[in-house]
């Protein structure tokens, strides 16, 4: 098997497993009957410009490029292939699945407190133990790891480019999330910030 075919299989496995995990937890913790206390809307919280860029430009373009890569695989797509040794492909794939495993752990630990939108639920609890004891946003750490591993294993420059843009646009959202949490939990969250890192443990 050539490296190009191998990269398509491995990146496809990462992508499929990631989608299954996200869909599962989205359905599992989607409780429309539970009352939510929303602070503005996701668009207001993320600012309209960043929201539009991330949701309506970057992510659609990433999906289109990925669809072309897997479904149609036109000959011109080979122009964007970056050769990569087989052993490195396997190594990055392993890291990608470790990221998925970490994502599952974070989801299980966060439980019903997780929400895809920037909002505070009624009776929202601040989770500061488990994966959150050293890192304030371990879910973003897991997401960024999986995204980047998928892009690198694809060996496709276009996918890598749009994935980096997607990660960057998502990282902008984190500061908004922290402001939201500070507005809800005040000094408790500020103290928590002093002892934890944003994406990695603070040393």
How would you describe this protein?
The chain is mostly helical. Helix content is 67%, strand content 2%. α3 runs antiparallel to α6 and α4 runs antiparallel to α5. The longest helix has 29 residues. 22% of the residues are buried.
**Would you tell me which CATH topology applies?**
Four Helix Bundle (Hemerythrin (Met), subunit A)
Average pLDDT, rounded to a whole number, is 87
Low-confidence stretches: 39-43
Biggest pleated-sheet summary: 2 strands, antiparallel
Distance between the termini: 43 Å
H and E order: HEHHHEHHH
Number of strands: 2
Provide the spatial order of strands within the biggest beta sheet. 1-2
Secondary structure class reads mainly alpha
DSSP helical segment count: 7
> Which descriptor suits the 3D outline?
elongated
Percent helix: 55-70%
Determine Rg (CA atoms, Å). 18 Å
Reading off the top of the CATH hierarchy, the class is best stated as: Mainly Alpha
What's the short version?
This protein is mostly helical and 203 residues long. It contains seven helices and two strands, in the order αβαααβααα.
Explain the layout of strands and helices.
Layout: H1 3-28, E1 36-37, H2 42-46, H3 48-72, H4 86-110, E2 120-121, H5 138-154, H6 157-185, H7 187-194
Antiparallel strand pairs: 1-2
Helix pairs in contact: 1-4, 1-5, 3-6, 4-5, 5-6
Keyphrases for this structure?
Four Helix Bundle (Hemerythrin (Met), subunit A), mainly alpha, single chain, 203 residues, two-stranded antiparallel ribbon
């Amino acid at each position: 098997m050539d490296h190009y075919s191998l990269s398509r299989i491995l990146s496809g496995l990462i992508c499929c497993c990631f989608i299954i995990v996200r869909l599962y937890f989205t359905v599992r913790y989607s409780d429309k009957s539970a009352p939510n206390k929303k602070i503005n809307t996701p668009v207001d919280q993320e600012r309209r410009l960043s929201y539009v860029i991330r949701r309506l430009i970057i992510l659609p373009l990433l999906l289109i490029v990925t669809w072309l890569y897997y479904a149609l695989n036109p000959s011109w797509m080979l122009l964007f292939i970056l050769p990569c040794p087989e052993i490195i492909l396997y190594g990055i794939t392993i890291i990608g699945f470790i990221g998925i495993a970490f994502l599952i752990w974070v989801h299980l630990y966060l439980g019903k407190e997780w929400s895809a939108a920037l909002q505070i639920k009624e009776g929202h609890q601040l989770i500061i133990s488990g994966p959150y004891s050293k890192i304030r946003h371990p879910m973003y750490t897991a997401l960024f790891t999986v995204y980047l591993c998928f892009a690198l294993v694809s060996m496709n420059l276009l996918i890598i480019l749009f994935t980096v843009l997607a990660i960057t646009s998502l990282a902008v959202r984190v500061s908004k999330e922290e402001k939201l949490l500070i507005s809800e939990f005040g000094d408790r969250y500020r103290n928590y910030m002093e002892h934890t890192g944003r994406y990695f443990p603070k040393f």
